[in-house]
Amino acid sequence: MEFYVTDGEDYLDEIIAFDKLVSYNFLKFPIPFDEYSERYEKLIRELLSRGEHKFFVALGKNGKFLGHVWLCMTLDTVDYVKIAYIYDIEVKQKGEGIGSALLKRAEEFAKEKGAKKVVLRVDLSNPALEWYKRKGYTERAVIVEKEI
To answer: Which intervals hold domain N-acetyltransferase (predicted)?
Structure first.
């Protein structure tokens, strides 16, 4: 499959619409889609209101949207260095190298911006965890949580 990776800010509506659908499947506490949609949009607006964000998209040779990566430049509160936090990386078709190309471009951008590392959160049950490990990512911390 032929595709290319480019700046994604002009595709923000498409990115958000696609991510909203994908992310709904990851909910731990299922809620009706209308309620989820309202919460999702509020969260996105809040996240975008602070920090330096960057989006990249993968497009087919015909300009068709194939996937995206969203990162935010921030500071690590443990190592006290500039980092790139990946909020999201999603592709419409796995196994075509699209996710790898998006991740590579995000890492290049982070390095250009002076980040010392790239950080993201992946649930232990998500098969993508093994994919990230193959890309050189390591497990450094554990998020603990308790339902209340």
So the answer is: 16-148
pLDDT band of residue 142 (cuts 50, 70, 90) is confident
- Cα 32 from Cα 134, distance rounded (Å): 36
- The answer, yes or no, to whether residue 141 has pLDDT greater than 90, is no
Query: In the beta sheet, which residues pair with residue 56?
Result: 7, 69
Render pLDDT for 93-117 as a digit per residue (tens, 0 to 9): 999 999 999 999 999 999 999 999 9
Three-state SS at 144:
coil
Asked whether 75 and 82 are in contact (CB, 8 A), the reply is yes
Give the span between the Cα atoms of 89 and 108, in whole angstroms. Answer: 15
Local structure of 78: helix, strand or coil: coil
pTM of the model: 0.92
User: What is the CATH topology of the domain spanning 3-121?
Assistant: Aminopeptidase (3.40.630)
For the chain, which residues make up each domain, given as ranges? 3-121
Nearest-CA neighbor of 134 among 93, 107, 83, 100? Answer: 100
Question: In whole angstroms, what is the distance from residue 71 CA to residue 108 CA?
Answer: 12
Write the CA distances from 84 to 2, 32, 117, 130, integer angstroms: 28, 32, 7, 20
